[in-house]
Every structure is written in C-alpha cells, then in structure tokens.
Amino acid sequence: MQSLKHKILTDGTVNSHEILKVDNFLNHQIDVKFLNEIGKEFRERFYDVEIDKILTIESSGIAIATATSQYFDYVPVVFAKKNESSNLDEDVYKSKVFSYTKNKLYDVMVSKRYISSGEKILIVDDFLAKGGAVMGLIDIITQAGAELVGVGIVIEKSYQDGSILLEDKGIRVESLACIESLENKMIKFK
Amino acid sequence: MQSLKHKILTDGTVNSHEILKVDNFLNHQIDVKFLNEIGKEFRERFYDVEIDKILTIESSGIAIATATSQYFDYVPVVFAKKNESSNLDEDVYKSKVFSYTKNKLYDVMVSKRYISSGEKILIVDDFLAKGGAVMGLIDIITQAGAELVGVGIVIEKSYQDGSILLEDKGIRVESLACIESLENKMIKFK
Predict the structure, then answer these.
(1) B111 vs A: CB within 8 A
(2) Peptide bond into B59 cis (omega under 30)
(3) Could you tell me the end-to-end alpha-carbon distance of chain B, in angstroms, rounded to an integer?
(4) For A12-30, what is the mean pLDDT?
(5) pLDDT at position A86, please?
(6) Which of B137, B24, B160 is nearest to B82 (CA)?
(7) Strand, helix or coil at A16?
(8) What is the pLDDT of residues B77-130, one digit of tens each?
(9) What is the interface pTM, i.e. ipTM, of the complex?
(10) Is B129's Cβ below 8 Å from some Cβ in A?
(11) Does B76 contact chain A (CB < 8 Å)?
(12) What is residue A84's predicted lDDT score, i.e. its pLDDT?
C-alpha cells in the first residue's frame, strides 16, 4: 500500500533500539481518515472471503478493526482483553502471549459469548513481528471452534519470523507494508 | 438518545454486583454501525464548538473516539495510555487515576507531542461513574495548556458523583444515556 509506505517514511521514526514508532497516526494519536483507507485496503485484499467477525487485541488494534468493519458490512468487532476486569465474563477463552515491547507474559481473553463455533474470523492488528499476539488470537479461535479466514496486518516486520511462522501453518497473511530492515535507523521496505 | 436507551435495555445486563454490562456492543464486542450513530449524536450535541482533537483513554474509549472523529472532520484522536511500554515516549504528561472496576491506582499518560498548548480538546469515553478517568484526562489537558471544550459520555451512572463533580467545575458534559439506578438489577434511566 503505497500511501502507507509514504506515511511511514514521512511520519514514522526509528528510535535508538531500532523500534519503528508510528504513534503519530496509528497507535497513540490516530489519523481516522487514513485508518479508513487501511480498512478499504483490507477489504480489497480479502475481497474473496466471507467474514462474520473481526478479531483484534487491545489497545492498538481497536481503532484499526473499527475502521475496517465499515468496509465489511459492519460485521462486529471483538477485541481480546489483556487485563482482568470485573467487567469481563468469567467464562472466557484464554491464551498466553509474550510481549517483547512490554517484556512480559500476559493472558489474552475473549468472552465465550463473542466467538462461536463455525464463525468465520478475520484477525487484524497494527504490527506483526514474532507473531505472539496473533498466535494467541488463533489459539482462541481454535478453542472456540471458529474458522480463521486470514490475518490483516498494517505493518509487518519481515526481518522477524512471525509471517513465516503463520504462512508455514497455511494461514493467509495480508500485510499492507513490509519492513525488511531498520538497521542504522533507516526504514527499508521489502 | 432513544436508540441507545433501547439498546441498553435490550442488550445490556446487570450482574450481581450491580455492574451494567454492555460488552456485546460497546466495550468488548463492538457494533460499529451503532458507534457511528453515537458519533453523529456527539456532533449534534457539540454542534456549536470547534475542536482540534478528541482525547480518550484506552481501551474502551478508542472505538468510540474513532467513530466520533468521522463526524468532526476527522480531527485526530489521541488515546491516553495506562501501561508503560517501550513504544511510548519518555516525555509524557502523566496523571494518576483510581479504577474501581479494576480496584487499582494507575498512571494515564499522553506523549507531550500529541497535546499542545491552545488546542481545543473534546474528551469522549464509554462510562462516567465517579469521574476518575475523566479527571485524569482533564489534568493532562491542563498540564499541556490546552483547552477542554467538553466531555462526551456514552453512559452516565448518574447515581455516582462524576457528573456533579464535573459540572461543579463548569465543565460541559453531554451524556447520551443517564442511568438513575441499577437497584434490584433493574435499569432505570434518569
């Protein structure tokens, strides 16, 4: 997606730990008009599939999934929760995920009421790196007996092994921008 | 907002702790078409103000703010973060908030790059109860030297004192549904 690559180059920054920061349009401050473009692009990429629900994970995936739903006939969005809360059902599907950016292991949870057997699920998320978060969501989909139809990623870090891990499992991954390297703070696309 | 009251009555449930659960359309599973109706309603309520940014707090406010931005000429959404992350700037505005649903004190943080002096800010959130989260956001707006133009709330628990607290400070609060009582698990609107 050319406009996304352009936006990453103009608005993204790479910090000293070689982390790509896109928090001025994607995951802290949000450019909603641009997110709608991303949603449209996901619809084009997944033009041939029928989906019942979009699944994502709090927090950064929520805005992306919300914008995307509009181009998939407003199918419901479900976001997996990372934190226990008195508002969450006790009866949940649960999976463990390790976050490298937060350096901790956490549970991801979805109420059993919101994913059902046989439902066709599209996962969307902001980043795909080592694939931990997506694997957790896939585990939840499997527990529910639902069907994963694909994974839509805004930015793939292709130098990490998440996309290979998923494709080896026969999972369809559509990444709108693929980063090959951030070495020397230079953003290089695949 | 009649359609919201209707939705709360048909889809909402009150659990044994007298907590109103609306997680099948608002804060776990999300009905995006309905969120757009909520966004339109906020525009009507705040028809007379100019705003530069919408500020909310992760996670439940994000989808609401994203939908709402579309009716305010796609102004940027900024969501305050509750958790430290290596992705977050070190230079942040920070405030302390006590969460009654999670029973803990936490920091809310916004990068100093995303709220600037003089900007006109609309806060939106899913619930207003005792006002802790909103007061934290207002503290951040004040630290930044920005201007709060109002607070848009989807569901106000009018039997708690958040709205009185805010109105006593001269803050304009627009709540789309006001709950007077959840006694005996009955949802009673004001």
Answers:
(1) yes
(2) yes
(3) 12
(4) 92
(5) 60
(6) B137
(7) coil
(8) 999 999 766 667 789 999 999 887 778 888 999 999 999 999 999 999 999 999
(9) 0.96
(10) no
(11) yes
(12) 64
Are residues A97 and A136 in contact, defined by beta-carbon separation less than 8 angstroms? yes
d(CA A21, CA A8): 9
Are A77 and A187 in contact by the 8 Å Cβ rule? The answer is no
State the CB neighbour count (10 A cutoff) for residue B86.
13
Residue type, B77: V
> Count of residues for chain A?
190
Contacts of A65 in chain B (CB under 8 A): 30, 63
Domain count, chain A: 1
Residue B130 to residue B109: CA distance in whole angstroms: 20
Mean pLDDT of A143-157: 98
Nearest CA in chain A to B22: A87
Position of tokens 């608005």?
A11
- Distance, CA of B57 to CA of B153 (rounded, Å): 12
In this structure, what CATH number is given to the domain that contains residue A169? 3.40.50.2020
Query: Angle CA(A53)–CA(A55)–CA(A58) in degrees, nearest 5?
Result: 145
The identity of residue A47, as a single letter, is Y
pLDDT at position B19 over 70: yes
Domain span at residue A68? 2-189
